[in-house]
Design goal:
This protein has helices at 13-24, 31-41, 44-54, 61-72, 90-102, 117-125, 165-179, 181-188, 201-211; strands spanning 2-6, 27-30, 81-84, 109-114, 127-129, 136-138, 192-196. By secondary structure, the chain is of the alpha/beta class. It has a 5-stranded parallel beta sheet, sandwiched between helices. It binds adenosine monophosphate.
């Protein structure tokens, strides 16, 4: 099954996509993580993307589309995939549909994760992550055992440059303006399911699995 998690920054897409992919043996394709890896590697794509990312703006559609089209075609995604952070504009959704149709695949379920803005700001501003293995922590709701240190690899945690308060505001604005039209796009195609993302992690996972008909 191929699933899209749709929702504002801080909705918990990354956490839930990791869980779903792990439980089902699907690939977790997070456009933001892929871009951050490109930035870290100093690739041409990373250099082009970095300025947009640090400003809370979207990276141009053509760059994202070719990057993600390549990832959905990889053997690791043959069993199914969860898209997290992509598509983010109607042009990206059209482009994705065209690419998938060409290889006889399609999106089966789109989950819109609904979370109030106050919770989003609280989640993003307290978020820490491990640059080595991408594990995500929160200073109050899911802190690491030792402050500032990744539980899994012992490496130092970092705050994303775009989790600064002024960039958070811009990212939420970008989401409202450019990404919310996708809700109608997928509703028109009868793929959209709405889930309350402002609940305990287990409850959200169960709601997503039930919405997509993948529950146990
Ligand atoms: P995220 O980790 O999903 O919050 O993404 C971090 C940043 O990467 C975003 O603020 C954008 O600058 C960029 N980005 C991630 N996914 C996309 C996308 N689908 N389209 C355009 N830009 C993206």
């Amino acid at each position: 099954m191929n699933v899209v998690l749709l929702g504002p920054p801080g909705a918990g897409k990354g956490t839930q996509a990791t869980r779903l992919a792990g439980r089902r043996g699907w690939a977790h394709l997070a456009s933001g993580d892929i871009l951050r890896a490109e930035v870290k590697a100093g690739s041409e794509l990373g250099r082009k993307a970095q300025g947009f990312m640090n400003a809370g703006a979207l990276v141009p559609d053509d760059l994202i589309l070719s990057m993600m089209a390549e990832h959905v075609s990889r053997p690791a995604a043959a069993n199914g995939f969860v898209l997290d952070g992509f598509p983010r504009t109607p042009a990206q959704a059209h482009g994705l549909d065209a690419r998938l149709t060409a290889v006889n695949k399609r999106i089966d379920c789109v989950v819109h994760m609904v979370v109030p803005e106050a919770s989003l700001v609280r989640r993003l501003s307290g978020r820490w992550y491990c640059p080595r293995d991408n594990r995500v922590y929160h200073e109050t709701s899911s802190p690491p055992t030792r402050a500032g240190v990744c539980d899994a690899c012992g490496g130092p945690l970092a705050q994303r440059p775009d989790d600064r308060p002024e960039v958070i505001t811009q990212r939420l604005k970008t989401y409202q303006e450019l990404t919310t039209p996708l809700i109608g796009y997928y509703r028109d195609r009868n793929l959209l399911r709405e889930v309350n993302g402002d609940a305990a992690q287990d409850a959200v996972t169960a709601a997503i699995e039930s919405a997509c008909g993948t529950g146990a």
